[in-house]
Amino acid sequence: MPILNKLVIFDEQNINDSLKKALSIEPKDVVMEVRESGLKGRGGAGFPTGTKWMLASSANSKQKYVVCNADEGEPGTFKDRVLLDEYTKLVFEGMVIGGYAIGANKGFLYLRGEYRYLLDKLNSYLEQMRKENRLGNNILGTNFSFDIEIRLGSGAYVCGEESALIESLEGHRGEARNRPPFPVNTGYLGSPTIVNNVETFASVHIIIAKGAEWYSKHGTSKSTGTKLLSISGDCKKPGVYEVPFGITINEILKLVEAENTKAVQVGGASGTCIPKAEFERSISFEDISTGGSVIIFNETRSMLHILENFMEFFVEESCGQCTPCRIGNVKLLDGLKKIRKGECSLSYIHELIELGKSMQIASKCGLGQSSPNPFISIMTHFENEIFSQR
Amino acid sequence: MEKTQQSNRAPVSHQPLKVEKGNLGEIGSLVEVEINGIPYKVPIGTTILEACRMHNIHIPTLCYHEDLCLAGVCRVCVVEVDGMRVLPTSCTFPITNRIKVKTSSEKVRKARRHILDLLLSEHYGECYSCHRNGNCELQRLAKEYGVDSYKFGHVTERKHSIDKSSYSVIRDMDKCILCKRCVRTCIDLQEVGVLEATQRGDKTTISTFLDKPLADVICINCGQCINRCPTAALKANDPSDDIWAAIDDPDKHVVIQTAPSPRAGIGEEFGCEPGTSMTYKLNTALRMIGFDGIFDTNFTADLTIMEEGTELLLRLKKKLVDGDDSVKLPQFTSCSPGWIKFIEHFYPEHLDYLSSCKSPQQMFGSVIKTFYAQEKNIDPSKIVTVALMPCSAKKFECNRPEMTDSGFKDVDYGLTTREMAQMIREAGLNLPELQNSGFDEPFGDTGSGLIFGATGGVMESALRTAYELVTGRPVPFDNLQIIPCRGFEGVKEASVLLENVKPEWSFLEGVNLKFMIAHGTANAKKVMDALVRGELNDVHFVEIMACPGGCIGGGGQPIPTSPEIRQKRAELIYKEAEDLEINKSFENPTIKYIYEKFLTDGPCGHKSHELLHTHYVKRGKYID
């Protein structure tokens, strides 16, 4: 699957030999360049990448790790798969640059179990990198050594959460850790670890090549650069698009030739449902933040059905360790079932919305904190439609 | 005070924050924290929960337990921290810089209530048909938050069947709230690892290997999980109905032996402070309940010392004089049935190091159905022996097929402290209000074995006897208190030099008798691993107790348990022991009497081997 709309990062003309350039400057300058670019985590949470790297690079430890989160599990997102498949160089070299920046010698690519078919291809690319001395000992003749190992996930959505991912890497049950301590201090095997999204590493590549100043001209002032969106649903041209931050929902709908759109789910199951009245809102960290999933629903779709689908997903994927997420999602789904049977009062739904708000702040990790999002946003915007559907 | 040790098996996230120089300031330096508007200073790295407890600010908890590594899963202890979008759990959040905390804001109260309502919606059963009624942490929380209805429903059908396979521990997973205290107890505190969460989401269950019955996995029956379960998901296998039936049967002669630790703990079941002595009041209660004979397990604790001490000296002689290298040293104690099952599963090739002595409980059983039956002229088939123990593993032990040397089941029922308290309540008695009364003949003299209840107690008793036997002098410690044996350090090591020994023990002249003491199987594992590595060649005697703190912290003791509670129980035992007239096993008149009249060929003689010694089973970790 090609990228349908190439702007900055994925324009072949811009793909340079960033690795050589990065290794020729001081690690702290690499961190500085990333900081100044304003790059924020592309997994969706939007933590400033430069800050994360700075914390890890200043952590006092001989052993540090770089982890690339390729557990692309959010329903409706498939852009990391395209990056891994077609822009492998950007991802892996971005990891090497990250290792150089924070002082790590070992990197892991945590690959989603369902992407196993990419494993051979990725491994042979790593082998090629080793042959070309872009990986291994004394990379490109410098004193810096770094290697990458691919580890496969086993299909748990929660392992996309960075601390659950680290638990899984260590061979434990995939369950989120308590925070603090954060992975930049206490990560894989207790060592400082940066966990970044596939797209984040690819973006670093272009930042090093073209410079922070050039990069930060794209997008908005608080959301610099571009974003890959995985667009699916009711439109004529679904696919992966590179768009500048600040793009509105209306602009996106035009780009993919969507018609009669009723609502757009941005950020996947754990994201927010945007009704037609709000289509002038924009994709950016200051407005609608997303890891990349955009799902378009036209007038024929049942919002109750969509919401049930999302809640079934969370009931299935909750790791089960903390109370709000383990039981809360079940209660939200049960409420929807009750609506279908005509057994649910409006006041009970309001009670469930309150429960959802407690889940958002009291759950242990991002899964439980975001799983009530679709419930709250769809219920809020489509209460009348949902209650008229039985 | 006992310090809970973090094992290396606790996941990083469950370990306390590493406070390092530089990134967080000096260890031990103070940091200011504002809780509910009032500033406090606490050592850097103190969790919000600890800080609140230091200053008597109440925060409810469920998955938190002082003995265990952190989990942060129940979320009941959430608080609001200024500047944070989410509510962190106070049990896991270390204070490293100046923060403002609210422990009871609107968000906090709502979230806690929601969490509680969710837990109650999945918690099967009703309080009045539950053995933890009145002592359930979930119930207490429901009361604290004024729960008067099931906001999100309530399960009315069982999802799991009750696992009653084990002689010791019964699991009712429908009562489980998934706090994982049992998991952490088993893998982290005890390093056994029988329990783990399986499945995920709402299907998550605490399970055994391949979901086998507890009797078919490597559970050592220590019951530490029961002591730490906040609800009734885990309980001991209660024989009290059978015991009542025996008492009510006029044909049966029902006798009970009481161990020191339950006597130090049972007061807690009646609202007394930990460390309140109930020994003689308990005798009165047992008489009123209808037991026909009430005896002190201290008697067979003394008997154990005689046998085990002699066995040690014989091993030393065989090794040092006869040059018999097949003799295994150090000799390990065998009083703790949890420890026995632990070594049988984890170190099956090292069973020869165990003393062949039965535990005091089992020795008493054999003696009752032989010597006592003979002395009292009672048909042993009519005798029912009950053992009041602080222990759930004792239930398994008395059911071991080899424990029938009297010709009958030596001990019929092992009863825990908690179950005894229940029987006393059922009989309409308020234990603290009862009069004192003594033990029954012929075992009326209280022996010296009282201190068996605390970790190090067996060693201390054994040394007193062995040292005096060999040298003719009492042990060279003030008031015979061998201080190196005392305290709650995980593994203790000490030695006593044998000098100017009696002529018959001349081969021990100048021997530095070296001994080790460990409690909790995580510590036992350290000792066994050292043995396997060949590092214990100069050690002669090792005492191991399966439970943290020894028997006073046993799996049958009153709930709750904490380092402080165990400390108080141990203090009581040592204090009572100071008042004893007899503090050396071989001076106990009943001991002298039984060797004169019954075990006539002496300690480790033919008869005692028949009745008082046993053998072990190579179980291994894989059970078909």
Describe the structure.
The complex is a heterodimer of chains A (390) and B (624). Chain A contains 15 helices and ten strands. Chain A is α/β, with parallel strands linked by helices. Chain A has three domains: 214 residues, Rossmann fold, CATH 3.40.50.11540; 73 residues, Ubiquitin-like (UB roll); 84 residues, NADH-ubiquinone oxidoreductase 51kDa subunit, iron-sulphur binding domain (de novo design (two linked rop proteins), Up-down Bundle), CATH 1.20.1440.230. Chain A has a six-stranded mixed β-sheet. A four-stranded parallel β-sheet of chain A has the order 4-3-2-5, sandwiched between helices. In chain A, strand 6 and strand 7 form a beta hairpin. In chain A, helix 2 crosses helix 5. Chain A is globular and about 70 Å long. Chain A starts with a strand and ends with a helix. By secondary structure, chain B is α/β, with parallel strands linked by helices. Chain B has four domains: 93 residues, Ubiquitin-like (UB roll) (Roll), CATH 3.10.20.740; 123 residues, Alpha-Beta Plaits (2-Layer Sandwich), CATH 3.30.70; 133 residues, Rossmann fold; 228 residues, Fe-only Hydrogenase (Larger Subunit), Chain L, domain 3, CATH 3.40.950. Chain B is 32% helix and 12% strand. Chain B is built from 18 helices and 16 strands. In chain B, helix 9 crosses helix 11 and helix 9 packs across helix 14. The longest helix of chain B has 23 residues. Chain B is globular, with a radius of gyration of 25 Å.
Summarize this structure as a short list of keywords or feature phrases.
heterodimer; A: about 400 residues; alpha/beta; Rossmann fold; Ubiquitin-like (UB roll); de novo design (two linked rop proteins); 3 domains; six-stranded mixed beta sheet; four-stranded parallel beta sheet; 15 helices; about 45% helix; globular; B: about 625 residues; Alpha-Beta Plaits; four-stranded mixed beta sheet; 18 helices; 16 strands; disordered N terminus
